[in-house]
Design goal:
mainly alpha
Length: about 80
């Protein structure tokens, strides 16, 4: 899987502090979280809102079905979430 080094380590001071707080809170930031924080002007609030809308918005699928589908895709992609 290709990951940009900048997304992993190129955060600004505020983003580095947020990532550190996440890790201190026993949460390992995901690539999704890091991407949103890396370029907030591109991926920030609007991208996060889109993700929430896709995951939790109106759908023919129940919340449980969507969660199961996401878990299945994560398994296929080798993601621990």
């Amino acid at each position: 899987m290709m990951r940009l080094k900048k997304v992993k380590s190129g955060q600004g001071l505020l983003q580095k502090m947020r990532l550190l707080l996440m890790q201190l809170g026993d949460y390992t930031p995901t690539d999704f979280s890091r991407t949103i924080m890396y370029r907030p002007e591109f991926f920030g609030d609007s991208f996060a809102r889109l993700q929430v809308e896709l995951a939790r918005g109106e759908s023919d699928w129940t919340l449980a079905e969507r969660e199961l589908f996401c878990a299945f895709l994560s398994k296929i992609n080798g993601c621990r979430f």
